[in-house]
Write a structure and sequence with these properties.
single chain; about 475 residues; mainly alpha
Length: about 475
């Protein structure tokens, strides 16, 4: 039940990508509004994660989950019925805020309800849900648009959430535990919440406002300076708060745990790779090679199925072998990314979708191992009463990685495409230069993605060494 909700929230970060052109066509959305329809959701999602996780920890995760689900359903209906693009942008921001309320409760409830090997299996299913939501999103959007037409298609892409949320709601009220363990003396640190939310906002803002085109305002990067100021103020306030004997928003002691510290870096770098890879691949196949939205969406189906299957199977092993699974999973995924770059360069355009689907099908083994194992490994030593905020900070890393990765990868992609003449705003597919330019753009963006994935692999290697050292020390002490 909670996993189904996690899938819904992740789906809405991915499926909207293929709806932007129909939304621009039917609502007359400007390029800035179209960008905010995508970015507003991610931005609100990221800002709400830690405050909502903290509130769930110190108050009641069930109440927060039900509240978030009701708001998410209402915002999805608002998106579906939006009469103009401005209303759709507002609805997407509300929807993203609801997603940010929901996701920390899912993680906190898993930590609370499961222990040991069972927790590993639960995180295996959670990892599969993230993979399914990310990979199947474009497919679902493409199917709705191709089946129902431009306007009904994009509206039902959002509207599908409403009946699904209404099905889950009574089960959440009935089945979720109302009681939970609380840390003594816990209460909401409102100034800390505001400072942290502001920092996340100002870090993400310049990236979500980056389209990679000449219309981007260079002044947006000044937000990073504001973020540095709010981050410094946050650290100062939290240290002062702890010195006064109070419970802070972020327990910095968690970062003394190598498993938690490495896990946050891995998930941040990983999400700076996976969503950008899907997005750039969609741009390349749809805009560059001229394939339809439904064909492009279907490329990711083998990846989704394989990663979900592997995550479900390997969940039972994460309790003992999480660090090794993360490392080798990233190695497999790196092989798939290298294969995609090679396919773009050497495979005929008409065969690109099928060969990319094959490469991603095999490569899906890696993420299937990584998502569940990294979640388990990162939170393995986090106290249950801090599970919501601990998991939330991982989710913040995911949203930051997502925003930064897509901004940088698409900027690289469009910087290469900018050199291509486009009469009427569309590529001339009869010109051999068009294919070469799009291949170069995809290869350049892929080089960035591969570089970031190698950074994730470095932290996974460090974590594997740390895990082996801990196990050797435990054996010696017996």
């Amino acid at each position: 039940m909670t996993i189904a909700v996690a899938i819904l929230t992740i789906l809405d970060t991915a499926k909207v990508n293929v709806t932007i052109a129909p939304i621009e066509e039917t609502l007359g959305a400007s390029s800035a509004q179209a960008q905010l329809i995508v970015a507003g959701y991610v931005l609100a999602f990221g800002i709400m994660l830690v405050p909502a996780g903290r509130l769930g920890d110190i108050w009641n995760r069930k109440a927060m989950f039900i509240t978030g689900l009701i708001v998410f359903a209402g915002a999805s209906l608002y998106c579906m019925l939006a009469p103009d693009s401005t209303q759709l942008v507002i609805a997407r921001i509300i929807q993203g805020s609801a997603a940010g309320i929901l996701m920390p409760q899912v993680i906190g409830l898993i930590q609370n309800l499961f222990q040991g090997h069972e927790r590993g299996q639960a995180f295996g299913i959670f990892g599969a849900s993230i993979g399914i939501g990310t990979a199947f999103g474009p497919t679902i959007g493409g199917v709705f648009i191709n089946t129902l037409g431009s306007e009904l298609g994009w509206r039902w892409t959002f509207g599908m959430n409403v009946p699904l949320a209404l099905i889950v709601l009574p089960f959440a009220i009935w089945l979720l535990p109302g009681q939970q363990k609380h840390k003594q003396g816990s209460h909401l640190d409102l100034p800390g919440v505001v400072l942290l939310a502001s920092t996340v906002l100002f870090v993400m803002l310049p990236f979500v406002l980056t389209s990679g085109t000449a219309s981007d305002d260079p002044a947006r990067w000044w937000f990073l300076l504001v973020a540095a100021v709010t981050a410094a103020a946050f650290v100062w306030w939290e240290n002062r708060y702890v010195a006064a004997g109070k419970s802070p928003v972020i327990d910095f002691a968690l970062f003394k745990l190598s498993s938690y510290r490495n896990g946050v870096f891995i998930t941040t770098f990983y999400f700076a790779v996976m969503p950008p890879m899907f997005f750039v691949m969609t741009l390349y196949n749809q805009q560059g090679l001229g394939h339809s939205a439904v064909v492009v969406g279907m490329i990711t189906i083998p990846f989704a199925l394989m990663s979900a299957l592997v995550a479900a199977i390997t969940g039972r092993f994460t309790y003992q072998h999480a660090a090794g699974m993360v490392f080798w999973g990233l190695v497999i995924f790196l092989g798939a990314m290298l294969a995609l770059a090679g396919i773009a360069l050497w495979v005929a355009p008409e065969h690109n979708p099928i060969w990319m689907a094959v490469a991603l099908g095999v490569g899906g083994i890696g993420p299937g191992m990584v998502m569940s194992a990294n979640q388990m490994r990162t939170l393995s030593r986090v106290p249950v009463e801090s599970a919501g905020v601990g998991g939330s900070f991982m989710q913040v890393g995911q949203r930051l990685g997502n925003a930064m990765g897509i901004a940088i990868a698409t900027s690289i992609f469009f910087a290469v495409i900018a050199m291509l003449p486009m009469p009427g705003g569309k590529p001339d597919y009869s010109d051999p230069l068009t294919l070469v330019t799009y291949q170069d753009a995809f290869f350049a963006a892929s080089a960035y993605i591969i570089g970031v994935l190698i950074l994730a692999l470095i932290f996974a290697f460090l974590d594997l060494r740390s895990d082996r050292a801990d196990k050797a020390e435990a054996k010696t002490g017996q």
